[in-house]
Amino acid sequence: MYTIEENKPLLGLNSFRIAATARRFVGFCGGDDLKAFFADLPAGEPWYVLGGGNNVLPTGDYDGTILHPLCRDIAVERREGDTVSVRVGAGVEWDDFVAWAVQRGLGGVENLSAIPGYAGAAPVQNIGAYGAEAKDTVECVECYLPDERRIVSLSAEACRFGYRDSVFKRELRGRAVILSVVFRLSSRPRFALRYGDVASRVRELGGESLENIRRAVTDIRQEKLPDPAVLGNAGSFFKNPVVSCALAEKLAREYPGMPCYEAGDGLSKLAAGWLIDRCGWKGRREGAVGVHERQALVLVNYGGASGADVLALAGKIRSDVRERFGVSIDMEVNLL
């Protein structure tokens, strides 16, 4: 049976450490809980799924119901040769799942070590780092569709993954609640070490292995990114912009050394952090908010900031990047 709390403080449930309150807070474990909850939900009442709160910016009190996944099981569904399909509950901490996989010699998600948040959010955002994305291993996503009052299993193809994007951020936004995700892992993994800093760190640790890749990625992330328990933040606040190759080539001529990566279909991906840094924002502070001193993609709450404060800073940064480079950078975080 689902649980209910009234007037729930959200300060400890978002990594930005923004003070806000939800009128109702409902914990659920599975499809039966959701069927019962939505049967009782008054018509027209808003709802929002909040997992670990690591990619969310509260913009005020939420006058509706927050749904919070409590399903925390990890189980092997089947083995076919070297392939192992693992079902992970939406409420499992993502990094706990990565650790579980590495400890069992199962590869595929080790490059995504130390990414905060719940496993249920991984396909929504199509989380990615160091040459890997969630879509590389997602087999299917089980979710509940309140409008249709049924549970469905969406294949990876049906999830329509893109760069930090999926069907859950578009057509199914506000229309699906993820219950679990099945990941396809391998007992004979192929290591992805095309990022130089990861590759060099792995060599220092003794060579290629799941354990060394996980340790290397974890160490690098801890060195570059602030701990949300110490300094409120949501990790990368902005997406890396994808632009035409023509624009990328023009900018590369104007700014030698500008990071640029081929994105296919006549497109190139630029480094948003580099653009923000060149606009002079890295390390700057405005009142209770600022840009982290070591990573320009990360906006931080020094204490007492509101969601409006963070959005105001983000707006200034986006405006400066657009004015200087003619490039629009979009927010990666979700607004609540």
Helix content: 25-40%
- The SSE string, one letter per element, is EEHEEEEEHHEEEEHEHHEEHEEHEEEHE
Strand content: 25-35%
Low-confidence stretches: none
Average pLDDT rating = 93
Index terms:
336 residues; alpha+beta; Uridine Diphospho-n-acetylenolpyruvylglucosamine Reductase, domain 2; Uridine Diphospho-n-acetylenolpyruvylglucosamine Reductase, domain 3; Uridine Diphospho-n-acetylenolpyruvylglucosamine Reductase, domain 1; five-stranded antiparallel beta sheet; four-stranded mixed beta sheet; globular
Your description of this structure?
The protein has helices at 31-40, 94-103, 122-125, 156-159, 196-204, 210-224, 245-254, 272-278, 307-325; strands spanning 3-9, 21-28, 47-49, 56-57, 62-69, 74-80, 83-89, 128-129, 132-133, 138-145, 150-155, 177-186, 232-236, 242-244, 260-264, 267-270, 285-286, 289-291, 298-301, 334-335. It is an alpha+beta fold and 336 residues long. The chain folds into 3 domains: 3-69, Uridine Diphospho-n-acetylenolpyruvylglucosamine Reductase, domain 2; 74-223, Uridine Diphospho-n-acetylenolpyruvylglucosamine Reductase, domain 3, CATH 3.30.465.10; 232-335, Alpha-Beta Complex (Uridine Diphospho-n-acetylenolpyruvylglucosamine Reductase, domain 1). A hairpin with a 2-residue loop joins strand 6 and strand 7. Helix 5 (196-204) crosses helix 6. The longest helix has 19 residues, at 307-325. It is globular.
